[in-house]
Amino acid sequence: MTASVREREVQTVSQERKRRTRSRTISRLDPIVVSRLPAHEYDLDPACISLVCPSCRTWVPIRVADTERATAKLVPHHTEQAGTEDPVRCPGSHRLVTINVTVATWSRRLEEGISETNGRRADRVIRKPQPMPTPAVMQIIGGLVDDKTARKLHEVHVKSCTTCSATTPRCTDGRQLAHLAAHTQRTAPLRRQRQTQQEEQADKRAWALRLLHDQQWKKVAGPVHKTDQQRVRDVLTALRKMLTAPAKPGARPLTTWEWADLQTTIAVLERQEKDLTHRW
Fold it and tell me: What CA–CA distances, in Å, run from 33 to 24, 29, 38, 41, 176?
């Protein structure tokens, strides 16, 4: 067989064409706007443009035709796994897609999201704190009971107990109370010293706060005193003008009680003015 015959046979054999999903069907659902979706729910890589279908939450390719009249829309897809008999088509099939985001903007959003996620993750391993040993019962009670109270408790127990004595405790309660009395008596000087130190520190802190308050008051005492004097003088001036001003025609005159109340207020303000003047 010559080479021309072989070439002719190859050209006449039908070849399998690449199938493409092309349909004029359009879903009744509203178009999907890519800019409203999170950056991790769509992929604008030219090799495979796809997004997460809002209806079935699966990744679905987007058919984008080369012509300007055609619009982008989701390819028809099913909600079941591949190979399932009688699959149900997703209602999001043939849904229009508005691609209003460039590839550069999408890449930048992904990088910002990755950097933000990495910033929220803790790089340092935090070890679990080791539990502290539990203190003994005598150590817990010893900080709450003083030596006198512990000694009185031990004496009351010895008097009421038939087996214990003042020198040899025999029952469990007697031994515990004896240990408590000995422990509080041994730590009494240290407790008193610590209490004295705390009281001295509290006194020093109160004295320092009082000294600071006095220093701050000395800085503003003069302006505050002048302001008080000026306020009292302004009120007195206004009240005296009310007394000396002629009555307006048609105005209601003051009653006896109102006149006495006004004079009392003026007398109190005059006394305040005198005190502010002579105090400084």
Answer: 20, 12, 11, 12, 78
